[in-house]
Each structure stands twice: as C-alpha cells, then as structure tokens.
Design goal:
alpha/beta; TIM Barrel; eight-stranded mixed beta sheet; globular
Amino acid sequence: MKTMSRFDERLRERHLGQLRRGKTEILQINVGKLCNQTCVHCHVNAGPGRKEVMTRQTIDRIVDWLARSDIPKVDITGGAPEIIPDFRHLVGRVKALAPSRHIMDRCNLTIFFEEGHEYLPEFLASREIEVVASLPCYSAKNVDAQRGDGVFAKSIRALQWLNELGYGTNPKLKLHLVYNPVGAFLPGPQAELESDYHKELKEHFGILFNRLYTITNMPIARFAAWLHRSGEYEKYMQLLIGNFNPASVEGLMCRNTLSIGWRGEVYDCDFNQMLDMQWKNGKPLYLWDIDPNQLEGRRVMTGDHCFGCTAGAGSSCGGAIIPHESEARESTR
C-alpha cells in the first residue's frame, strides 16, 4: 500500500482534496545540467562538469509533440540552457511553429561572456525571447557569495547590454529578474523587494527591468547538501511546513506547467524532475508517450519539497503565487 506524503496529508487535513493538474499553459524544457556556474542554492546540481545535455533528436521529438498541442508558452531552462550546442536550433524550431508561441529563456547572465556565446544578447532580442535572469541580490557581496566571485559584476554588465538592445523598455522584450534568499529563510514580500531592486539598480547602474520574481530555495540537491552540512535541514523543513499557506495551492505551477527532462522524460515540475519523480504507466513515460489532450486532471506526485512552493506567499517559476497586499490593491484600481 502506497504511503501518503506529508504534503498530501496536509491537503487532506485542510479539506483541499488531491492535487491535480489543470490546463497546461507552459511546457518547461530542462535541456540539461551543464552550466558555467556552480551556485550554492542550485536544486539542479548544475555545473561545468556535468555531461547531461539534450540532443537535437530529442529536441525535434519534443517540438513535434508541441506542434500537436495548443500550449502557448515554452520555458527553456537548465543548467545554463544557452550552453547546449543546439540551443539556437530549439529556439528556431519553436518559433517556426506559430507566432503565438512564446519563449522564455532562464538565463544566468554570465553565459554572455563565455567564449562562443557572445552572440546571445542580440540573438535573444532578434527572436523576441523573454529573458528571466538570475540576480539573487542587488549587492555584489551577496551575489558573489551565492554564485561565485565576479558574478555580480558580469551580471550587471549583461543587464546593461540587454537594456541597450531594448530589454526592459520595449514591450516586446521582457526582462524579469529572479531573487533567491542567500540562506535558510523565506523570501520577503515580492512587491517590496521589486521596488528595492528597481531603485537600487537604476540609481547605481542605470538598469531597467520589468518584474522581480521571488523564489523559495528548495531543500533539494546542492542546497539540501548545504543545509545538512550546516545542521539546518530539519529546521528549514519545519520553517516550510509551519508556513504552509492553503491559499497558494490553487496557483501551484505543477497545475499549469509540464516539466520535461533532457532525455524527454515527463514530470509534474522541475523539482520533481530533480528527485527522479518521473511519470510512469507500468514503465517510465517520455513526452512522446503522452497524449497532449489527456493531461488535465492527472494527479500530481508530491513530497516534502512541495511545502517549499506553498510556504508564505507561495513560490513558482513565476515568483510568488499570492500577491502582497499592495499588489492586490493596485490590481483592483
């Protein structure tokens, strides 16, 4: 008999029923674990030595499947997604499907300065690719502590480069930043942090951007190892569990996002992917085994890490799930 996860038990206690998928609006493709950085908080355990890279054959099978669906958004992530040899091929194939297909690139910014990748800013702008860029703080000390020495300075230069191309000002060139806490605590209110980022980055560096997404660090892979080494793992898990917010459940990204691994495997979310919680039906399932018209209503696989997405204001790849009071007031005006 299958044991119910602590997260499922909490849903039952709150009379929220089983967590099930809604309409799929985003296809998130993790193209591999190869990266030019080695970040402390990384739930992918990505780095320069990783060998997992999506092949062109897998890319083509994924895009062929996408063509049979009406999923409007493609979210490309990694690792550093742009580092794979066929990144341009992937973007080109998705763009060729229809103008309505929207592409997001989750960029670490420093990839622009790696040999052979200097083309990226102009390439992304010419294809009107939405950039979701990692910048865990607006101070060099905090960013370099989490992502490596010199990363902040390169990130600032990259953002200025994107601004020069129209990102952050041209409505067709969206530029969003991502904040992760530098320790074992929850993000502050997204609206307040966004205001601080706008002020600090514009005042000190002349940088403009659209939105800031706050994302809770997940107790997975490299961040989990850091928590264990520092003796903070159980304390952090209790922080997440103790701050469970039932209002966040409706907006969880596993309800509208389908996560695909570098070999084409299917998962409910990127975090499940890193925990090898692959979809199965007697055998492991790959995207091309799935009927795009039969995704809605499928039960989501859960675990303790799900408390990370439901703590406080909630967390997703699009930032906080529940708007801060100031954001809610603004939206009703």
